[in-house]
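Researcher: Next sequence.
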Amino acid sequence: MPKAKGKSRRHKYSYNLNRKRLYRSARRRAAPRIACSHIRHAWDPHKSVAQNLAEMGLAEDPNKAVPIPKKLLGMEVESDGQQPGKKIVRKPYVVNEMELDASLPEKKSNTLSRDLIDYVRYMIQNHGENYKEMARDEKNYYQDTPKQIKRKINVYKNFYPEEYKNFIASLKPEKMEVQ
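Model: Next structure:
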């Protein structure tokens, strides 16, 4: 395949281009990445980070927000009796929404694939607790060792304990009929 035109020619370095200024201006324009959706919606791009956080009632610097008392450090310093000026919180709903989200119980996102569940149920149904026999089974496509199969079964037990108990209970009548 032929080369693209112009790629083989040597590029000249431009001495007149100020790369530092270009880099700095690009950095200055970039908005901060905000993970929390409540903060993202209340964010004003025309204000600084400190101003935005102060309006929401959040601290920019945790060391200044919750200072360590001088008495704990072993130094006793007399205070002037003046407290630093309280800032006005114009967007208190941001903190309230964040507290509400934090108080909700965490969702369990642990699930197993349908294939793995079917594989584990097949192995238990046909071989019971004999892991060596399971390793030799023709459905063991990934050639799992007995320990790997045991680990997969234990994961299934931990993720779906009720389903596992019902499955084992449904197997016991079948085994009694065979004997």
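Model: The longest helix spans residues 161-178. The chain is about 50% helix and 0% strand.
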